Amino acid sequence: MRRLLPSENSEFGKKFRYAQIFIVSCFLILAGRLVQLQVVYGKEYRALSNHNFLQKRRIDAPRGVIYDREGTVLAKNVVSFNVYITPIFFKERSFQFLVRLLDLPQSDIDFIKHRIMMSEGRRRTYSLLAIRDIPKEWAMILESNKTYLRGLEIVPQEKRFYPQGALASHLLGFVGEVSREDLEQYREMSYLPLDWRGKSGVEWKYEKELRGRRGFVWRVLDARGRRVRDVKAHRWMPHPWRKDPVPGENIHLTIDAQVQRAVERALSVYNSGAAVVMEVNTGKILAYTSKPSFDPNELSGKLSSTRAHEIYANPHKPMLDKVSQGTYFPGSTYKVIPAIAAVEEQLVQNDEYHLCKGWYEYGRNSSFRCTHSHGLMNIHSAVVSSCNVFFFMLSERVGMDRMARYARLFGFGTPTGLGLNHEKGGFIPTKQWYAQKFMQGFRIGHTLNSAIGQGNVKVTVLQSAMVYGAIATRGKLMQPQIIDRITDYQGNVVQGFTPIVKRDLGFKPETYDFIISSLSGVVNEPTGTAYKGRIHGLMVAGKTGTAQVRKINRDALNKEEAKWSHLDHAWFAGFAPVEKPEIVVVVLIEHVGVFASKAAVPVTMNIIRKYFEFSRNQKR
């Protein structure tokens, strides 16, 4: 029987042809989409389907421990409880219940609502850190209500803890959450939001060593977000399914916690100051104190805005490291520079005397004052009695630029290289600097002021320790050292640190003989400015310094207009014992308003006395 087909030119034939084209097009689109899903995007979609039941969680590495030289723990880790949330399972009803259940700060509520629950894409399947370091009581409450908190999990993790409290806080530093700037600046560290990193001190400088390397673990979840622990679940996991974290390396400091504590107690009677104790032959720092200090436990936790304002608005500046970051007029402790320059280059003789009438006249209208009338002075007695007039005269012979050259030879004007807390280099002026800085240019008065550690001379406490250490060792300028060794988590030494001599000053033996004898006289001769504070049975050498901060009417010191910040600084820099130096000690007391002999000297002698008591006890 003959089959009848519609005519191609008939109306029905045209519709039939269009229908064929439409059906074929639909099949082609479906086939193309199938190829796209299975071939082009197949790998990605298979990964997404796996994430419906597979979840990767990071395991943070324990941070390295920080010890003192005797093994006392200064920074370690303790267990805390963190809240993790998987957004895909954590619905609005769970969020509202969590808010009612706990007294959360608004910042945590906003973070969970906007950064966790509104996550997009694959991130919704991740277990995200939502709240850090909750109280143990909160952890128990959440665990008992987990039925109503799908997607929420309590994970015990380690947090930083400083068992000695504020001891050596500026040296140790503290840790804090990474900022946006940290994420950009330290991309090589692979930080994630809410990670912790060192913010200052040793915690900051040795972040790479202390941090360690994080690990991970894959987990199988059911449709309700609960972990499946069935043995068969392991067949779904990728290989490797777990990578253990590598703990951070341990830092062993050169400081002695016992000496550090003695220094902080000695300074406790004053509001603000700094002190360094260092081994003269090695450059190893035994104590590093900046006052007022702070509690790194407080700064490493959840610091309220009110408390943060109290700390950062404190006029005594507890966050400033006054050992290596603060720069100060050194006062008369700086007189060793022009004295050494003059003796080394034979610009003055020991039998040369000059009369101190209490002031030094320069020109017709200029006079520079001394503390009092000293009478006839030679260079030895001028150091011992700290006679400004003699040094005004001496500075004219030495000259500004020669004095600056010797200062820089000792390390003034440049950072010591310790590298903590953005260490400052201070400032040593020259004739050229004055010519460029001031309209009237350089004047001889600038030289006179520089010779007594005033004018525009600025130094750090740590620099002063290195200078007096170099005098004690008769010319060896050491590199300051705060790390004794670094070990891994098994106790194996990864890196050791040996003493480094930055340079040998190379002065004549007579120069060292002169300056050590003069500094010894400051403490041990009756006319010395530190004589009343001497330690019987122990020869100490050093130099006092009272540095004027601002010109004020001394008769008004007890009046309201004489503010704390206008008062003089008190210094003492010295070493002991004179015959065979072991330690150098530098003490600065800020704005104390009295001579160094009444403030800095007693504190320094107390520190030296305690150090040798500890030393004798250890030898028994």
Characterization of this structure:
The protein folds into 3 domains: 13-49; 55-253, Penicillin-binding protein 2a (Domain 2); 257-619, DD-peptidase/beta-lactamase superfamily (Beta-lactamase), CATH 3.40.710.10. Helix content is 34%, strand content 20%. The chain contains 21 helices and 23 strands. β22 (569-576) and β23 form a beta hairpin. The longest helix is centred in the N-terminal third of the chain and has 30 residues, at 11-40. The protein is elongated and about 130 Å long. The protein starts with 10 loop residues before the first helix and ends with a helix.
List keywords for this structure.
620 residues; alpha+beta; Penicillin-binding protein 2a (Domain 2); Beta-lactamase; 3 domains; seven-stranded mixed β-sheet; five-stranded antiparallel β-sheet
Protein topology:
Elements: H1 11-40, H2 42-50, E1 54-59, E2 66-67, E3 73-85, H3 92-101, H4 106-116, E4 128-134, H5 136-144, E5 152-161, H6 169-172, E6 175-177, H7 180-185, E7 196-198, H8 201-205, H9 207-211, E8 215-220, E9 242-243, E10 250-253, H10 257-267, E11 273-279, E12 285-291, H11 296-299, H12 305-312, H13 336-344, E13 354-356, E14 359-362, E15 366-369, E16 375-377, H14 379-385, H15 388-398, H16 400-409, H17 431-437, H18 444-451, H19 461-472, E17 476-478, E18 483-487, E19 493-496, E20 501-504, H20 509-524, E21 541-547, E22 569-576, E23 583-589, H21 600-619
Parallel strand pairs: 2-10
Antiparallel strand pairs: 1-8, 2-3, 3-4, 3-5, 6-7, 8-9, 10-18, 11-12, 11-23, 13-16, 14-15, 17-20, 18-19, 21-22, 22-23
Helix pairs in contact: 10-21, 13-15, 13-16, 13-20, 14-20, 15-18
